[in-house]
Amino acid sequence: MAVQTVDRKISVAPMLDWTDKHCRYFLRLISRHTLLYTEMVTTGAIIFGKGDYLGFNSQEHPVALQLGGSDPTDMTRCAVLAQEKGYDEVNINVGCPSDRVQNGRFGACLMAEPETVAQCVSAMQSEVDIPVTVKSRIGIDDMDEYSDLTRFINVVAEAGCDTFIVHARKAWLQGLSPKENREVPPLIYDRVYQLKEEFPHLSISINGGVKTLKDAALHLNYTDGVMIGREVYANPYILAEVDKLFYHDATHVLSRVEIVQHMVEYTRQHIANGGRAWHVARHMLGLFQGQAGARVWRRYLSQHGPDRNADETLLLGALDALLDTQRQAEAFQQRVNQDV
């Protein structure tokens, strides 16, 4: 199998409990080219779990599996399974700071063990043809000097990794929650820019605090790629301009209403396979962010979605409520204009 090339100018971050296959299918309707990542999946879940932790929709490509673990044998076994499933990339999590992840000896704590990460990379690349990449922080605890970061990059790159996604914050392994670790340590974008200057032969993507596509375009002046996280989840339609702006693809972009119509059929199929409407709808709360009626849309889904008997008409009901609100707003504005 030939090595595949993944265009990572814009990607959506792996987000635990959020970027599942339903979320990724939904986001793919908005952008054809954005690289999507799974939630972090541990080697233990894949090897010993009873669920299908590697399942995804064929429409999701390009899609990458983010893997949590530190045992080279287990990591390699999971990378092989990922390639067999059809993933376009496997990414090693060296950035998550949670206690549970640390207890499993993976995530951000591995920044203190670059040799372990290097062993995993080498072992995995010996068995798969898809890219093996690493997502890290700029440092952890008191190992937060630029020299600590470059040592980590050097060791892992020498093992064969040529792609790094770097969250431009350090992580405190003790004293801060995962949420606080996304907000409290300051963003130091210049450190990631400096990495790209020092390692021009490597692909360096930046992550952390990206709110707009204007921000992304700025970062791309200094890095190879930009990973956007929670802003995409809160305001997913931000991706609607990505294909045109960053991939020179002016193909028709689905409207928000068209996306809802597609997701109705997807939800119907999910329910037929034993799922619930809320599994899908919960990822769509932000679809109309910034639009008239957005609050009505969110409220309708939040009130009716968790009902176990809710079906695909949940989305149609929310859409009707939103459109009715928009019609009322337009009628009110017309009356105001007439009075003026």
Automatic annotation (TrEMBL):
The keyword Manganese does not apply. Catalyzes the synthesis of 5,6-dihydrouridine (D), a modified base found in the D-loop of most tRNAs, via the reduction of the C5-C6 double bond in target uridines. Specifically modifies U20 and U20a in tRNAs. The keyword Plastid does not apply. InterPro entries: Aldolase_TIM, DUS-like_FMN-bd, DUS_fam, DusA, tRNA_hU_synthase_CS. The record marks N93, K179, R182, R295, R298 as: Interacts with tRNA. PROSITE patterns: UPF0034 (PS01136). Residues 12-312 form the DUS-like FMN-binding domain. Its cofactor is FMN. This is tRNA-dihydrouridine(20/20a) synthase. GO terms for molecular function: tRNA-dihydrouridine20 synthase activity. It is an enzyme of class 1 (oxidoreductase). FMN binds at P14, M15, L16, Q66, K135, H167, N207, G208, G209, G229, R230. Belongs to the dus family. Belongs to the Dus family. DusA subfamily. It holds the Pfam family Dus. The active site is at C96. Keywords: Flavoprotein, FMN, NADP, Oxidoreductase, RNA-binding, tRNA processing, tRNA-binding. Its EC number is 1.3.1.91. It catalyses: 5,6-dihydrouridine(20a) in tRNA + NADP(+) = uridine(20a) in tRNA + NADPH + H(+); 5,6-dihydrouridine(20a) in tRNA + NAD(+) = uridine(20a) in tRNA + NADH + H(+); 5,6-dihydrouridine(20) in tRNA + NAD(+) = uridine(20) in tRNA + NADH + H(+); 5,6-dihydrouridine(20) in tRNA + NADP(+) = uridine(20) in tRNA + NADPH + H(+).
